[in-house]
Backbone:
């Protein structure tokens, strides 16, 4: 059995158990109780550790780092989950793990289930690795921001209907949710800016034919999130406006990061 499966299958089991514990915790939260979250988060962290070993055994090879579509998706899911799990130790963010855990499980399952996917090899140049790390961290933070925006939209909808759904009733107040949303966007914007800067500095062919779509879409997403932060600072944008801009910026970034890779590797058969 491949090493990735030895670590990946227990990781999926840990993720599934953590998800079940968090779902079973919801009725008690709605009743006003505050049951412990330590076991669920601990299992999530254990799953993330096993996931990391499974991913490392799959992407590391003699020629460089294999960042094909499915492996890159699995890596982004892992980083996103780690960010929300670590943040949950100090802030009430564990409810964000409810959508993140199943998505990470799907990404890991895809990585394990299709090991022969087209490969996209990245060399071992430190500058390029820094650029890739910044890009993945930025994408992960914006993923969390998009999920946060979706939860915020659910809260607004529930308040307008005056029939709050069970899940909406256990979320923090709207003001706290918006503060967290803009913190995530601000941190992601800084990392995306650094990612673009390092790309222009260290990638000689950033506007080459196979990268131009990713570069242009990343710049558009950067402009959308930058405009949202300016609108928040000078015009007090919030609520549905913030949600629309966040989801729009994330949609463009999703196309930049994974849409372009899918077209290049699976449609055009270009492997890098």
Residues:
């Amino acid at each position: 059995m491949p090493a990735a499966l030895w670590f990946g299958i227990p990781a999926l089991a840990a993720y599934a158990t953590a998800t079940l514990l968090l779902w079973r915790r919801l009725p008690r939260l709605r009743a006003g109780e505050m049951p412990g979250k330590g076991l669920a988060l601990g299992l999530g962290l254990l799953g993330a550790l096993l996931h990391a070993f499974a991913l490392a055994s799959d992407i590391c090879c003699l020629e460089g780092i294999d960042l094909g579509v499915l492996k890159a998706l699995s890596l982004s899911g892992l980083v996103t989950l780690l960010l929300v799990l670590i943040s949950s130790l100090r802030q009430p963010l564990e409810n964000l793990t409810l959508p993140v855990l199943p998505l990470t499980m799907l990404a890991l399952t895809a990585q394990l289930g299709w090991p022969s996917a087209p490969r996209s090899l990245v060399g071992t140049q430190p500058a390029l690795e820094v650029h890739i790390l910044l890009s993945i961290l930025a994408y992960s933070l914006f993923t969390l921001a998009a999920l946060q925006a979706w939860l915020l939209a659910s809260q607004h909808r529930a308040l307008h209907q005056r029939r709050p759904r069970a899940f909406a009733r256990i979320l923090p107040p709207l003001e706290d949710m918006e503060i967290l949303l803009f913190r995530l966007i601000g941190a992601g914007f800084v990392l995306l800016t650094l990612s673009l800067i390092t790309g222009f500095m260290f990638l000689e062919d950033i506007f080459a034919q196979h990268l131009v779509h990713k570069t242009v879409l990343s710049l558009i997403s950067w402009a959308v999130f930058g405009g949202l932060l300016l609108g928040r600072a000078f015009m007090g944008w919030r609520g549905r406006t913030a949600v629309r801009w966040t989801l729009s910026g994330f949609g463009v970034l999703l196309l930049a990061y994974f849409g372009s890779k899918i077209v290049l590797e699976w449609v055009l058969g270009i492997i890098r």
Notes: The chain has two domains: 1-112, 125-272. The chain has a mean pLDDT of 81. Strands lie at 60-61, 64-66, 121-122. Residues 125-272 form one domain.
